[in-house]
């Protein structure tokens, strides 16, 4: 009889642990593996990350947040928010302009300095010229780019990303261990 009680006790613990893990993964955090070079130098292919799924339940996405979202190709993409709802985005001579104001992008500064011809890193464009032809980013959408502008499928090609397609904010690289860090 004691063995049966012990077994039932262990089964309860296992069921509760599975339930808690399911709730955490469904509503709070989820792992993702970076695939491809689109976020270099910030993130490398095969970096394992934790995505915070609840951060945008309490706050709006912010410029330069790195997010994971469901893409039109039915896979998840990881990109950086460059533009917010109601803003006009343009690039000219490797400078981001938001509503006509130049905005510094410190996360690509080092990469631009290393390039022989930096004017080909982020090709010049205006929001009106990208998928959808918008004058401003629509309400409930963000404009995203990969940090590796020469090799990224992002809002220049798929248009602004709807809030309801955002999985969450990428916050922590945990593997490989030498890359362990909180993502800025």
Name of the CATH superfamily: Umud Fragment, subunit A
- Judged by helices, strands and strand pairing, the structural class is alpha+beta
Task: Please give the count of helices.
Answer: 4
- What is the approximate shape? elongated
CATH class: Mainly Beta
Major sheet size, sense and barrel closure = 8 strands, antiparallel
Mean pLDDT: 84
Describe this structure in words.
It is an enzyme of class 3 (hydrolase). Keywords: Hydrolase, Membrane, Protease, Transmembrane, Transmembrane helix. Pfam families: Peptidase_S26 (PF10502). Its EC number is 3.4.21.89. One of its GO terms (molecular function) is serine-type endopeptidase activity. This protein has about 180 residues and is α+β, with helices and mostly antiparallel strands. It has a single domain (about 30-180), classed as Umud Fragment, subunit A (Ribbon). The protein is about 25% helix and about 30% strand. The protein is built from four helices and twelve strands; from the N terminus they run αββαβββββαββαβββ. It has helices spanning about 1-30, 55-60, 105-115, 155-160; strands at about 30-35, 50, 65-70, 75-85, 90, 95-100, 100-105, 125, 140-145, 160, 165-175, 180. The strands form two sheets. Strands 1, 2, 3, 4, 9, 10, 11 and 12 form an eight-stranded antiparallel beta sheet that branches. It has a four-stranded antiparallel beta sheet with strand order 7-6-5-8, with no helix packed on it. The longest helix is centred in the N-terminal third of the chain and has 27 residues, at about 1-30. It is elongated, with a radius of gyration of 20 Å. The relative contact order is 0.20. The mean pLDDT is about 85.
């Amino acid at each position: 009889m004691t063995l049966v009680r012990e077994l039932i006790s262990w089964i309860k613990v296992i069921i509760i642990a599975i339930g808690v893990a399911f709730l955490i993964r469904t509503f709070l955090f989820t792992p993702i593996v970076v695939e491809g070079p689109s976020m270099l130098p910030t993130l490398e292919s095969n970096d394992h990350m934790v995505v915070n799924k609840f951060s945008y339940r309490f706050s709006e996405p912010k410029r330069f947040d790195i997010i994971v979202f469901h893409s039109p190709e039915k896979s998840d993409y990881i990109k950086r928010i460059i533009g917010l709802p109601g803003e006009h985005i343009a690039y000219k001579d490797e400078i981001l302009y938001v509503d006509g104001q130049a905005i510094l992008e410190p996360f690509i500064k080092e990469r631009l300095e290393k390039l022989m011809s930096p004017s080909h890193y982020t090709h010049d464009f205006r929001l009106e010229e990208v998928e959808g032809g918008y004058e401003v980013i629509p309400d409930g959408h963000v404009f995203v780019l990969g940090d590796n502008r020469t090799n990224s499928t992002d809002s220049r090609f798929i248009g602004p990303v709807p809030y309801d397609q955002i999985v969450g904010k990428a916050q922590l690289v945990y593997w490989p261990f030498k890359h362990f860090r909180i993502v800025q």
